[in-house]
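Subject line: Sequence and fold of a protein, written as structure tokens
Enclosed: The protein record, placed directly beneath this head.
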Amino acid sequence: MTIDSHQHFWNYELPKHDWIDDDMSAIRWDFTPSDLAPVLARNGVDGCVAVQADQTTAETDLLLDVAERHDFVKGVVGWIDLRAEDIEARLDRYDGKAHLKGWRHVVQGEPDPYFLLQADFLRGIGAIGKRGYTYDILIFPHQLVTALEMVKLFPDQRFVIDHLAKPYLKDGYHDGWAAAIAAFSPYENVSCKISGLVTEGDYEAWTEASLQPYFDTLFEVFPTDRLMFGSDWPVCRVATTYDRWIEIVRRAVTQRAPEALDAIMGENCARFYGL
């Protein structure tokens, strides 16, 4: 079983998608299940997890509708305002939504370096944990310190770090990122997605060799049962194809932990999200 732990759908429109700048013009389009289905089939992928890109409950509802209508969309990571005073009532609205597996906030875009430790946000994390939801951590490397402090507060909450915390591949920044992410090793409730790496490099000039130090660090830091493949489709298209990325990940796993290939390419994701 191969499961893509991280992909997106959207109907492109401005200003909602103004984060897609000129360098990312290749994804200034609508991306729908009918676009993804043949890509998954061609690469032997059995299903995927659709993750929010827009911070609205309208998108959460859209993704849940997509999952209801397309069997290959196995789960949804949505958005809800975790800082809301009435967070419990807002979560009540999603009771019984079987495809809803977890939540995410685009913390990488928050100017407050202590955003993850704000009291209202922590209250929201506590609320989703009581209901069995997961939380995807979307951050840049400089936010790993506060992410670690948050993780320490919730030992029973299932967390996953998206995109390796987006190391600054383009600038060759590795050692500082490696030291920061290594601090998560003892926390068994934290996993990491092998996704989104090539879009942190030079879209045209990155090489597979340039990725190797990051792969090496991941396998040093995380046990293989805490790693999962993700494509970050369609965002990955600005730097590579789905086909090339999944082959790079398969090769990286085979070189380092061949016995864990099935787990990393799908089984860990299915277990983490309860698919």
In short: The longest strand covers residues 73-78. The two ends are 12 Å apart (CA to CA).
